[in-house]
Amino acid sequence: MSLEHSELILNNDGSIYHLNLLPEDIAETVIFVGDPDRVPKVSSLFDTIEIKKRKREFVTHTGHLNGKRLTVISTGIGPDNIDIVINELDALVNIDFKTRKVRKNRIRLSIVRIGTSGAIQKDIPVDSFILSKHVIGFDGLLHFYEPKNIALKNISEAFVEHTNWSPKKASPYVIECDKGLGQKIMSNRIRLGFTGTNIGFYGPQGRILRLKVEDEKLNEKIASFSFNNLKITNLEMETSAIYALSKLLGHSAISLNCILANRTTGDFSKKPEKATKDLIKYTLNKLTQ
Predict the structure, then answer these.
(1) Angstrom distance (rounded) from CA 244 to CA 259
(2) Which of 134, 149, 174, 207 could cross-link with 194 by S-S, CB 3.0 to 4.6 Å?
(3) Among 155, 130, 105, 101, which residue's Cα sits nearest to residue 255?
């Protein structure tokens, strides 16, 4: 069955609606960054750049490094943007835009997020690197899709009980990273983490400016949660959506975070740009070895 024009939306040049990309524009290994200005910081380390495109906050560069074709794309902030980016990337490789039909032979993308984050455990120093082995999503995005038993319900149920989670909030869900892709990135430079993905930066992460939050002790409850010695290590705003949609669509995904702040100790990186660039270099080296 062909997809309706209202569902698969294409631009006049045949590119996918938000990303403004054609199927040939992307590699099968895709690096996610949040900030559009971080895209050239990644692609400047490529040997060659063949494609540069931009629409709204979505900046895409595709090129080669050490003989491997790579794409780096800015997602912007938040799980809602991830919903757009991953669905449209999947469409680029797994839907025939001429017939508007899903291809029988599916392509499996490797997706690597390079982001920044704040730690909530005292023993995690700033400038360290975390690979999110697990993620707990507070965003609710997964619940809009048909469930396929990809979530670890025993952990999320224990978390809900521990925190006395409000039923007015989205039900938390826990997902693991792709083990194969994670193994490719691992070394003694990387800490394995259990990341929390928030729906916002202020209230959802316990920051109070002029608005009070529903539960002023929620961050303390999150930090004190433990399931078989598994503790939540850091908070950010994209990883759960990346893991959820990637698993549902059959892609591999991992999320790497440079820890710029420790919310428990109050520390902040003295050289955040250098720390983030070091993670970029590390990741590119691992992906192209």
Answers:
(1) 23
(2) 134
(3) 130
Residues 285, 120, 159, CA angle at the centre, nearest 5°? 105
Whether the CA torsion 130, 134, 140, 141 is positive or negative: it is positive
Report H helices in 73-124.
79-94
Residue from 231, 232, 275 nearest 257 by CA: 275
Query: In the 8-state DSSP scheme, what is residue 20?
Result: -
Amino acid of residue 216: E
Q: How far apart are CA 124 and CA 118, in angstroms?
A: 10
- In angstroms, the CA 196 to CA 235 distance is 5
The per-residue pLDDT for range 182-224, each reduced to its tens digit, is 999 999 999 999 999 999 999 999 999 999 999 999 999 999 9
Q: Alpha-carbon dihedral of residues 83, 85, 91, 93, nearest 10 degrees?
A: -140
Backbone angles phi, psi at 24, to 5 degrees: -75, -5
**Can you give the pTM of this predicted structure?**
0.96
| Amino acid identity at 32 | F
Cα dist. 108→30, 93, 252 in Å?
11, 8, 7
Task: Calculate the CA dihedral of residues 80, 86, 92, 95 and round it to 10 degrees.
Answer: -90
Q: What's the confidence (pLDDT) of residue 147?
A: 82
Tokens of 41: 């910081």
> Rounded CA gap, 225 and 217, in Å?
13
Give, in degrees to the nearest 5, the angle at Cα 83 between 77 and 88.
115
